Amino acid sequence: MTLKKLYSIFFLAVSVFICSCTVNEKDPETEALNADTLVVEKNEFGIEDADSLNEFKSEVQKNETISDILNAHNVSYRRIHEIAGEIKDSFDVRKIRPGKKYTIYSETDSVEHVKYFVYQQNPVEYVILNIADSITVKNGEKEVVIREKTVSGIIDYSLYQTLSEQNVTPVLAGSLSEVYAWQIDFFRIQKGDSFTAVYEEKYIDDVFVGIGKILGAKFTHFKNDYFAYGFDDGNGFTYFDEEGNSLRKEFLKTPLKFSRISSRFSYSRLHPILKTRRPHLGIDFAAPSGTPVRAVGDGVIAEAKYKGQAGRLVKIRHNGTYQSAYLHLSRYGKGIKTGTKVRQGQIIGYVGSSGLSTGPHLDFRFWKNGQLVNYLTQKFPPTKPLEKEYFTEFNSAKSVIYGKLGLNNQIAVIEKNNQENKKS
Fold this sequence. Notes:
This protein is α+β, with helices and mostly antiparallel strands. The chain has eight helices and 22 strands. Strands 11, 14, 15, 16, 17, 18, 19, 20, 21 and 22 form a ten-stranded antiparallel β-sheet that branches. Strands 1-2-3-4-5 form a five-stranded antiparallel β-sheet, with no helix packed on it. Strands 6-7-8-9-10 form a five-stranded antiparallel β-sheet, sandwiched between helices.
């Protein structure tokens, strides 16, 4: 054997030894990395073994039942009946609705075996039915991410349009009308009115799903500024003005959220049907048939019946001083009958044209000390103001909102005016 061949055999042996040592040696960092890859990540519904299963996503179709859905995935009607009976106290399978999303997770051997059925009740809440062996129900919620936004605008035609032009959900218009329900008549918003609002947007998986709380707002209406500061005073999140007075008053500004006044309070109005002049001691709100009508204040239903020219009527006794009535309704709200207690903002009926009426509208009437009065000219005091113990915390929160509304330069002016008003 030549010397050259001996060298070749030696180097080959050394290489094999080194490789074998490298393969068998356990590197701590590599081991840790491998261990991490063994962690099972949960899917969007928190199902740990979802990655090993087949996934099918869809929406409930019109007239489709859970039996139709599961049977199409090889679940027998007998098994479906067993599942429905087992979970009836936790989840009523008859209440699944068209348009709602669902997801099926199944195993596949020679045939499909459904393991989980996930029904999404809304973008946040869902129900997981584990139907593989033992039948279980689990309720869950997706993580909602809150993002704070600020929007400002000058109204040219309507608040709804102004928000839409800025790609802001028009739902915010309804939320602002709720905040200012006791201060601003949103039927009378005019060109040139302006607003700034700090509010929350909700996202799930980076998809916008709705708005949260309005944290603060300034609305300028007929050249008057109306401030709203969201604050939890121990009785829940509510709204106060810059002096700590509750924005909530004894009565709402109007019984309808959005509409227009077609006829005002008058002692001599030409009746549109009878063509004679007679008092119209109420306010007509023009609105489409079926528009919800709200109780303007807490009280007890004094009357809920069909009453001649007034048609379907609801009359509420609020206290010893005030009463209100809602005429020409198409139907009554749920549970509305004489003697029923109602809360401010509760739906007591729906706009219609029952009785003597030219078309769908609400004839709204209001009594003070037994006399019919013009509701739009009444001045109602706010409810209980902020307790003194909360003022320090409230003022701190108010200052933050000032900044977010871009109103820091107005703080000194407003505080000065407040002090002067208190001295006078």
